[in-house]
Amino acid sequence: MEINEERLRLGLSNPNLLARKLSQTYNRLRSQGGYNPNGIDFLEQDWDNLLILDACRYDLFEELNDIPGDLRRVESRGSATPEFLRGNFDGKQLLDTVYVTTNPMLYRHRDALDVEFHAVVDLWRGETWDDEHETVLPEVVTAEAKRVADDYPDKRLVVHYMQPHYPFIEAETTFDKGHIGDDSPDGLTTWMQVLTGEIDIDEETLWNAYADNLRRALPHVKELTEYLTGKTVVTSDHGNMFGERASPLPIREWGHPPGIWTDELVEVPWLELTNGDRRAVVSEPPDELSSEDDESVQDRLESLGYV
């Protein structure tokens, strides 16, 4: 197993980070596949459109959702986006599928993930990125997804929204804004700062900001479900923790660290609905992907708290 020396140093500097690292190592050694082995394969399920809310817990979705359909909970293969991608995308040729994403993790891990889509539309690039909020707004995702659906009427569609993952769009919080990698103490990401006490913020404020981010996104997700034809599923790649106990070492955990497969992190919504006729899907050679310079990619990763 490859050891990240920087992460090891951080773990040794704080008891909670060390406990997290030990739990992650234990779980990963048991899984052998690099992801939660009890999760379902999302790509093998029956759908025409898969709409992914990033870091959306089942309980919050159940409380706030007003999109009609059949809702149940399923278990994800990841407690963080890279694990989700590894568990669902790696080793697959998905030439009948277009992936519209606000999340740069597929690009960041492109050398490690063996996956081929018909097309990938990176909304975190270019004009669809919102400089003020340093994310991709949900209304932009919906508008772009409609365009892509029209452009690719014979393809399965995966649409990956960034919300309720921070930045918290409507909140007056500051810890989740800006280039996090530039000013975080000792290289800690945002949720790691909460875990170690570097950020002084109460749980209620965090939860409300997170819930408001989902409220901000859901009307636009609903709009897209009403536009798309065929069978649509609304789900999430993983959940988020707000001080609940981790496993096997029961520290109070925050955020969505990989390798921590608690219910709060791997139980996600699975809402099914059908609008009109099912889509006739065909596989075709991939479209060319656009390119982006490494500095711009790094900026997006920092704004979303991934580095």
UniProtKB/TrEMBL annotation:
Residues 297-307 have a biased composition (Basic and acidic residues). Residues 285-296 have a biased composition (Acidic residues). InterPro entries: Alkaline_phosphatase_core_sf. This is AlkP-core domain protein. It comes from Candidatus Halobonum tyrrellensis G22. Residues 277-307 are annotated as: Disordered. Gene3D superfamilies: Alkaline Phosphatase, subunit A.
